[in-house]
């Protein structure tokens, strides 16, 4: 009456000495140890005895208790939190997709432009924050490879967004969630509509209504900044030649960059007719969102140029706050440039001989006044920046910028 499968052991020790003691074998409830016969090594026998219906019923009833406690019902707050997390994940995927699509369009524009240029013509490419001189023939294949990879990333991003949408819809159906501002699906037939009217009162009692369409716009506001880094002005002319500037956007922990570049580098420029002014005309455009004005966005500028030994060194740092929203006029901001200096005389003398100024490891520390206390510096020149800001959703959060006049002061 037993289905027996014998598996020989490599050893020949008799199991009679074990006296029926159970060792640590997998599925030891169905293992039976028998004494060895003459000349036959000990064997482990897997026995599958027939299970009665009463035992099967007992195992079925005891299964839920052995697995753990029954699943508790979620509260409305927990359902709301999980649903908001799913929505935020989908929103982040959409933002990432927009960023990749922007890079894809830039690659397409550059590729179309370079195809009309001679392959031997020199061009510059920014690699790791460093401008590298290459030829069009060497850069074009690399850009085409990057373009194809970006296209694959766009397809994968769209697929992830669709999957996340299916997951959100399934979660809504599972917990009977209705979103205000979104119309429910139409009924299949008029008979089903009549049946639904009878159950409307019961459903409305258990329905969790989430004001996501209006609540999302009330939870944060958008700030769009447009303008340009116009020029750098030096009263006695710049100390070096071939100046270029890099800007970095710094904001508080509650701010998130929605579109645009957080960092960019201008072209190399030099003085022409007016020896005091170096023109950049570098466009600046980005959009950020936040739940509060704390940590208002700042733009940190780092100016670099070559000295008399043709060695690249910094020519000053500057920072500006993004202007408050409240007027459609473009504001002119003049940010003074300051150059760090060594505190001891020996290092200052070496810096004067070599023409190399000390540089900041992270210029973003200028956004926090407590991080650059005691810094020795001197001011020479200024940057001219034109910026315009537009806010959206601030009125719902009762934010009044109080700006009605154009202020050209820094």
From TrEMBL:
GO terms for cellular component: MKS complex; prefoldin complex. Keywords: Cell projection, Chaperone, Cilium biogenesis/degradation, Cytoplasm, Cytoskeleton. GO terms for biological process: cilium assembly; protein folding. InterPro entries: C2_B9-type_dom, PFD_beta-like, Prefoldin. CDD domains: Prefoldin_2. Gene3D superfamilies: 1.10.287.370. GO terms for molecular function: unfolded protein binding. It is found in: Cytoplasm, Cytoskeleton, Cilium basal body. Pfam families: B9-C2, Prefoldin_2. The keyword Chaperone applies. Its main location: cytoplasm. Heterohexamer of two PFD-alpha type and four PFD-beta type subunits. Binds specifically to cytosolic chaperonin (c-CPN) and transfers target proteins to it. Binds to nascent polypeptide chain and promotes folding in an environment in which there are many competing pathways for nonnative proteins. Belongs to the prefoldin subunit beta family. This is B9 domain-containing protein 1. It comes from Anopheles albimanus.
């Amino acid at each position: 009456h037993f289905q027996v499968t014998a598996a020989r052991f490599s050893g020949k020790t008799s199991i009679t000495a074990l006296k029926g003691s159970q060792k640590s074998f997998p599925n030891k409830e169905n293992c039976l140890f028998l004494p060895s016969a003459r000349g036959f090594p000990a064997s482990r026998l897997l026995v599958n005895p027939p299970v009665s219906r009463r035992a099967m019923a007992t195992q079925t009833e005891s299964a839920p208790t052995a697995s753990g406690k029954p699943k508790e019902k979620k509260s409305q707050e927990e359902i709301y939190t999980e649903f908001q997390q799913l929505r935020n994940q989908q929103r982040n995927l959409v933002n990432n997709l927009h960023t990749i699509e922007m890079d894809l369009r830039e690659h397409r524009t550059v590729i179309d432009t370079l195809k009309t240029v001679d392959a031997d013509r020199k061009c510059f490419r920014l690699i790791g924050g460093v401008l590298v001189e290459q030829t069009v023939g060497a850069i074009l294949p690399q850009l085409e490879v990057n373009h194809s990879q970006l296209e694959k990333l766009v397809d994968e991003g769209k697929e992830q967004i669709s999957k996340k949408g299916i997951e959100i819809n399934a979660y809504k159906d599972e917990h009977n969630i209705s979103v205000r501002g979104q119309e429910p699906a139409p009924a299949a037939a008029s008979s089903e509509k009549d049946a639904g009217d009878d159950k409307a009162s019961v459903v409305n009692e258990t329905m969790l209504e989430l004001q996501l369409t209006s609540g999302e716009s009330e939870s944060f506001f958008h700030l769009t900044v447009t303008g340009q880094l116009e020029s750098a002005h030096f009263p006695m002319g710049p100390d070096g030649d071939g100046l270029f500037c890099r800007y970095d956007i710094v904001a508080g922990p509650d701010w998130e960059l929605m579109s645009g570049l957080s960092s960019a580098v201008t072209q190399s420029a030099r003085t022409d007719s007016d020896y005091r002014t170096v023109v950049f005309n570098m466009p600046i455009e980005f959009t950020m969102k936040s739940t509060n004005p704390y940590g208002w966005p700042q733009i940190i500028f780092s100016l670099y140029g070559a000295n008399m030994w043709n060695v690249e060194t910094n020519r000053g740092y500057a920072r500006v706050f993004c202007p408050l929203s409240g007027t459609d006029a473009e504001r002119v901001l003049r940010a003074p440039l300051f150059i760090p200096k060594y505190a001891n005389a020996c290092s200052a003398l070496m810096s004067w001989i070599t023409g190399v100024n000390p540089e900041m490891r992270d210029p973003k520390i200028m956004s926090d006044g407590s991080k650059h206390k005691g810094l020795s510096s001197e001011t020479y020149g200024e940057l001219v920046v034109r910026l315009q800001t537009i806010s959206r959703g601030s009125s719902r959060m009762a934010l009044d910028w109080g700006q009605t006049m154009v202020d050209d002061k820094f």
